[in-house]
Each structure stands twice: as C-alpha cells, then as structure tokens.
Automatic annotation (TrEMBL):
Domain HTH tetR-type: from-to ranges: 10-70
InterPro entries registered for this protein in UniProt: Homeodomain-like_sf (IPR009057), HTH-type_TetR-like_transc_reg (IPR050109), HTH_TetR (IPR001647), MT1864/Rv1816-like_C (IPR025996), Tet_transcr_reg_TetR-rel_C_sf (IPR036271)
Species of provenance: Rhodoferax ferrireducens
Keyword Transcription found: yes
Name the UniProt record assigns to this protein: AcrR family transcriptional regulator
DNA-binding stretch(es), residue numbering of this chain: 33-52
Gene3D superfamilies: Tetracycline Repressor, domain 2
Length: 208
C-alpha cells in the first residue's frame, strides 16, 4: 500500500481528484473513503471536506472531469470528418472506446449513476447533451448523403451510444471471453465490431 505523502502546496482539489481515481482503482468507487484519501494525500482528515461535502460529491466531480475528457476526444474525432456522416459517426465511437480504454476508472465512475449526483452535475449534463447532438448531427448528415438508412435519427443515435457503451462495458467487465473473443485484444475487437455496426446502417443498395 502506498505510504502517505506530505501535501505542501498547490491545488488540493485537483490533487484529491487525481488521488481519488487511483484509490478507486484499488478498492472500487463504492468503497472510496475521504478519510483514506486524506491519508494518501498527506492532509488532515477534515481537509477533503473543504472541497467535497461527501464521497458522492467527490465522485461527481471525478465524473464531471471524466466527461470533459470524453467530450474533448469525441469533438476532436468528429472534427476530422466534418464532411462524411458515417465516417464521423465511426470516429465518435472510436473516440468513446479510446477514452474507456485509456481511463477505465473514469468510465466506471461515469457509468455508476448510483454513486454520483448527476442531477447536481450541470456541467456533466451539458457535455453529454453536446455529445448527443454530435451523434445526431453525424447521423442526419449521413442520411442527407444517402449513406445511412432512412430511420428516425434519434432512434439511431440511442442505438449508436448503446453499441459503444455496451462494447466498452463488455471489455471492461471481462465478458468478451464468453463470446469467443480474446480479452487481450478486446479493445481492437470492440473497434472492429463498431465498424460492423456502422456498416449495418448503410442502405441495402450500398452493402457489398
């Protein structure tokens, strides 16, 4: 177990957030303790409460930070394919999978709605709405270009998010092996399966 390290200066709030992610990776978000977090950082047990009223408030802040990282990745991915709807949708999905792979605890915390106060996280809600809008816009563009089936784009947007979330969840939770996929290459399999899903959105006349 890491030994406590003295905290001398700087941004305590951010230090606590970073340490919370590390601690949650060890014990699980549901078992995270503000007292243990203070010990790890090297501050008084009461210090974290100056920034976070509770464990749920701390995890909510972690989730907001995680969602911002996701937003940046997905916006960047979409920007590289502004003129191609389906390619943009693929890039959005790949950015989501990249985020879940590179930040597994962020993915778990964001997914654990019972551990955070989503209603109080206005920034998180705004970022999620932006990502929903990006997905919807990509699908509408693909339909305008004749590259995607003429189905309600809102329905397809929900299905697209469910697909990438489900793929990330299966890999993170170790379910791919049960379906004959090698967990060691699970993230690559997830990206390939995303490509299959995007391909299925094409009109029948475009499927080879």
């Amino acid at each position: 177990m890491p030994t406590p390290r003295a905290y001398h200066h700087g941004n305590l709030r951010q230090t606590l957030l970073n340490a919370a992610v590390q601690l949650a990776e060890e014990v699980g978000a549901e078992h995270l303790s503000l007292r243990e977090l203070a010990r790890r950082v090297g501050v008084a047990p009461s210090a974290p409460y100056r920034h976070f009223a509770s464990r749920k408030a701390l995890l909510t802040a972690v989730a907001e930070e995680a969602t911002e990282r996701l937003r940046i990745g997905m916006v960047t991915g979409a920007a590289a394919h502004r003129q191609q709807g389906l390619e943009q949708l693929q890039a959005l999905g790949e950015a989501y999978l990249d985020w879940a792979e590179q930040h597994p605890m962020h993915f778990r915390v964001v997914s654990a709605r019972d551990q955070i106060d989503y209603a109080a996280a206005s920034g998180m809600a705004q970022r999620n709405q932006e990502l929903r809008d990006l997905t919807l816009q990509a699908l509408e563009l693909a339909q305008q270009q004749g590259a995607a089936q003429r189905c309600d784009p809102q329905t397809l947007a929900v299905l697209a998010r469910a697909t990438v979330y489900g793929l990330a969840r299966m890999q993170t939770d170790g379910h791919f092996a049960q379906w004959g996929l090698d967990p060691a290459t699970g993230w690559q399999s997830a990206r390939e399966l995303l490509g299959v899903f995007v391909g299925l959105l094409r009109p029948a006349t475009q499927k080879g």
